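Quick review question:
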């Protein structure tokens, strides 16, 4: 055991220095053995990241979790898959027993996701799945009807990439050093960010040039850096607004929403630009405190809680959106 741990530690150290030096467990991400260290590590990663239940939207306690197949193991086309990949950790995630057994059961995602969306709204459902490292692209794959073995393989490939990003975020960026309660609060802010990206893409998805010039320049720089790091990145997707928005942090999203040309599209939802700026400021202060390892005081936490509640209420509103920018 000690030699294995030492090997894993040295391999991870080498990987941090050289992206091409992937540790063996990373190359074996289609792990199906529930007793393996890779399987347990990824499952624990989801719990540490504050994975929310897909039906209730809450973060379940560990004792209440089921090991859920995203695409059910009873799927009639599972036999056409290579190996035993229907049981891969990339097709598994923690959900409450209530949601796993009574809400979803053996339904395919293209059957249960529309029902969840009808009940809770698309923003809330997408945001909940995002906490399970199900990206917007993977979410769209899950909605495909018919859903085929090729779709399943594409789902696993995409979820492997987002899981690697989550590991980097938690370990290399040292979020794991945050107390569990603050880590959960930080995850809530990220869920809101994803909701804002979805809202902006819904409004301007056909217009990839909607970003303000200074935001577009920053996004372009970040995409170039990402392509240098990962040449396999789909440059066609990052050319779309949906892809560009992934490289926008909280303040950049604020600039897009409150920009003079775009504000009329969001004013029916947010109503007051000054109030919106205040709420963005509260979230940013909280986020910056965490990123810079500053102590987050009680007032900042309370402001953050008020801001998150406000954004959750506003993003859940159904409003007529004006598409297009003068």
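Suggested answer, residue by residue:
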């Amino acid at each position: 055991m000690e030699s294995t741990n030492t090997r894993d530690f040295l391999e991870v150290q080498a990987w941090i220095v050289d992206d091409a030096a992937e540790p063996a467990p990373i190359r074996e991400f289609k792990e199906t053995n529930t007793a393996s260290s890779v399987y347990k590590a990824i499952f624990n990663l989801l719990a540490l990241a504050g994975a929310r239940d897909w039906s209730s939207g809450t973060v379940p306690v560990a004792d209440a979790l089921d090991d859920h197949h995203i695409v059910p193991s009873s799927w009639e086309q599972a036999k056409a898959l290579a190996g035993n990949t229907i049981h891969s950790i990339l097709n598994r995630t923690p959900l409450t027993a209530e949601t796993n057994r009574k809400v979803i059961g053996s339904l395919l995602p293209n059957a249960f996701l529309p029902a969840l969306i009808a009940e809770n709204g698309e923003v809330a459902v997408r945001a909940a799945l995002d906490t399970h490292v199900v990206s917007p692209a993977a979410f769209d794959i899950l909605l495909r009807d018919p859903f085929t073995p090729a779709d399943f393989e594409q789902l696993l490939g995409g979820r492997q990439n987002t899981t690697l990003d989550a590991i980097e975020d938690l370990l290399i960026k040292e979020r794991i050093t945050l107390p569990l309660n603050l880590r959960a609060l930080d995850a809530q802010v990220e869920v809101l960010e994803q909701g804002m990206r979805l809202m902006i893409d819904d409004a301007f998805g056909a217009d990839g040039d909607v970003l303000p010039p200074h935001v577009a320049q920053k996004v372009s720089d970040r995409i170039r850096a990402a392509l240098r790091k990962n040449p396999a990145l789909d440059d066609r997707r990052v050319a779309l607004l949906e892809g560009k928005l992934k490289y926008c942090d909280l303040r950049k999203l604020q600039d897009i929403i409150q920009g003079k040309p775009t504000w009329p599209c969001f004013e029916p939802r947010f109503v007051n630009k000054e109030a919106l700026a205040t709420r963005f400021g509260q979230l940013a202060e909280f986020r910056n405190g965490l990123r810079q390892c500053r102590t987050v005081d009680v007032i900042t936490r309370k402001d953050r809680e008020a801001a998150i509640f406000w954004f959750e209420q506003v993003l859940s509103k159904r409003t007529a959106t004006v598409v297009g920018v003068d």
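Why it works: The two ends are 64 Å apart (CA to CA). Residues 320-326 have pLDDT under 50 and may be disordered.
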